[in-house]
Amino acid sequence: MTRWTPDPTFYPSPRLAAKAPAETLAYVAAFAPKRDVPDSIAVVDLDPASPTYSKIVGGIDIDPAKIGRDIGQVVGLSRRVGAKVSSEAAKAIRAAKPDVVVLCTSSSAKTVLPQVEAILKTRTPIVSTTEELSYPWCTNVRQASQIDAWAKKAKVAVLSTGVNPGFVMDALPIALMAACQRVDRVTVRYASPFALMHDLRRMGAGNPLVERRRTPLRRATLMRMAQIYAERFADPDERIRATFDIVWLSGWAPHESQQKPLRPGSAKARLADALGTIEISAGEKARPK
Fold it and tell me: Are residues 85 and 120 in the same domain?
C-alpha cells in the first residue's frame, strides 16, 4: 500500500506548527500582473530580537469586547505593546501613522473592497491575507482594477499573501492527500490548439471564470491565438503539447462503528465562551461597548 511521506520541512497539521519554534523569516510572493518586471520573493523579518523587527502601532476590530484594550492582551502576548484596539479604521491609521496596514478581515475580495478603499485614502500600504486578492486578475477583475486604481492614486502598494490557516487550508488538503495512491502524468501532442480545446471541452474543463465574457470570441481572435500559441509553444514538427495529471484516490464506505455527529443544538459549551468573545447572531450588527 502506498504511504504518504510528508516533506520534513512542512508541518503536517496546524497544531504541530503552533507547537514548533517561531519562524524568524517569512517569504512572501510578489507578483507583477503586467509582467513589466520579474516576479519576486519578499523577505519579512519576524525575529523580535532583530533591530528590523516590525513594531505594532495600532489595531482595528469590530468586536466591542476588544475595543480599547492593549493589542498584546488581545492576541495573547505576555506583554503590552503600547497600542490599543480601535473601531474606526481611518481615525486609528491617521493617529498611529503606520508604515503598513495588515488586513486580515475576510477571504472575499468584495467584502474587503470598502476596507481597502478606506485604508488607501490614508495613503498607507496594505498587506492582506484575503485569498481572493492573492492573484485576482482572473476571478475578481473588477475589484482588482478598482484597487489598482486606488493604489496608483495613493502611490502605495497593495500585496495579498492569500494565507488563511485552518481546516480548509491545512487539515482538509492533508486528509485528502492521505487518500491519494499515485499521480500519473500524461503528455499528449495535438495537431493544433483547437484539437486541445476540443478535448478540454469534452472533459468539462471549459471557462469556469465568473467574470468571463458572455459573448463568443471572434473567429479572427481565435485564429490569431492559434498562430501565437503555435509560434511560442509548438514542437519542431508543429504539434503542441499538453500535460495532464491523473490522480488516483482511495475511498472508504462509512461503517456503523464510526463516530456519529451530535444532534444540532445539543452542545454543552459555547464557542464564544471558549474564544472569550461576544456571540453576534447572523445579520445582527455589533453593539457599541
Answer: yes
How many structural domains does the chain have? 2
134 neighbors 160 (Cβ within 8 angstroms): yes
Residues 215 and 143 in one domain: no
Task: Write phi, then psi, for 83 (nearest 5 degrees).
Answer: -135, 140
- Residues 155, 50: one domain? yes
Torsion sign across C-alpha atoms 231, 232, 238, 242: negative
For a pLDDT cut of 90, what percent of the chain falls above it? Answer: 8
Domain that holds residue 184: 180-249
The closest of 89, 41, 42, 40 to 62, measured between CA atoms, is 89
My answer on whether 33 and 152 are in the same domain is: yes
Q: What angle do CA 207, 209, 212 make, to 5 degrees?
A: 85
Q: Which residue has the higher pLDDT, 248 or 123?
A: 123
Cα–Cα separations (whole angstroms), residue 221 to 192, 207, 216, 225 = 15, 16, 10, 6
List the CATH number of the domain containing 147: 3.40.50.720
In a domain, residue 217? The reply is yes
262-288 pLDDT per residue, tens: 787 788 887 778 777 777 766 666 555
Q: Read off the pLDDT of residues 29-45 as tens digits, 9 standing for 90 and up.
A: 555 566 665 555 556 67
